[in-house]
């Protein structure tokens, strides 16, 4: 990758003065930005205060971009300026049509990654130069750290709540939303229709308002017992 010098410097020095080579005879400007960071020692006074930031990244590539960023950090020798790099997710329980269940990780914020880091010229350039990363969130791309309240909320959402017995409570992925019109497809109220009034993701149950004897009554059902009308 070639690097152009600022016009002011180009005017002050002759081409012969600017045409330098490294010890191996290769053009020093041909090195990649990451390699340059490895060879250039960081000043001891460089900012090392870490905070949490949000990065905009390509959707559906969040995990691979995190891995690429971690490799670049290690390659550049900047580990002391970075902390955790996370794709905020939560565990959810999904059911197949046959009733079988599985636990999957659902991204809380598709297209975003959170990173704990110290922002300086070296780390900012490394992050921005990692393929798949668009920019820091903030005004005009200027990194704005998350507040502690925001950090606590994101981290808490990524961890399943625990019951009094210490067991993790995992949400159930329910494709319906409050207000949907549904039909009961099995059970005591089979073929009845009603409006979904409440969703209990923790237990995988829903409440449907069904007209019984001319009056709307709340009926609690398993989410898989109904279908969209």
Notes on the structure:
This protein has 6 helices and 14 strands. With 229 residues, the chain is of the alpha+beta class. It has 2 domains: 122 residues, NusG, N-terminal domain (Alpha-Beta Plaits, 2-Layer Sandwich); 55 residues, SH3 type barrels (Roll), CATH 2.30.30. β10 and β11 form a beta hairpin.
- What shape does the CA trace take? elongated
Strand content: 25-35%
Given this structure, which CATH class of the largest domain is correct? Alpha Beta
Q: Give me the count of strands.
A: 14
Largest sheet: 5 strands, antiparallel
Count the helices. How many?
A: 6
Uncertain segments: 1-6, 8-42
Helix content: 10-25%
What's the end-to-end separation, in Å?
Answer: 59 Å
Derived structural class: alpha+beta
Query: What is the fold named in CATH at topology level of the largest domain?
Result: Alpha-Beta Plaits
The CATH superfamily of the largest domain is: NusG, N-terminal domain
> What average pLDDT do the residues reach?
78
Cα radius of gyration in angstroms: 27 Å
SSE blueprint:
Elements: H1 7-12, H2 15-18, H3 33-39, E1 51-57, H4 62-76, E2 82-86, E3 89-95, E4 101-107, E5 112-117, H5 121-128, E6 133-136, H6 148-157, E7 161-162, E8 168-169, E9 171-172, E10 181-184, E11 193-200, E12 205-212, E13 215-222, E14 226-228
Parallel strand pairs: 3-9
Antiparallel strand pairs: 1-5, 1-6, 2-5, 3-4, 7-8, 10-11, 10-14, 11-12, 12-13
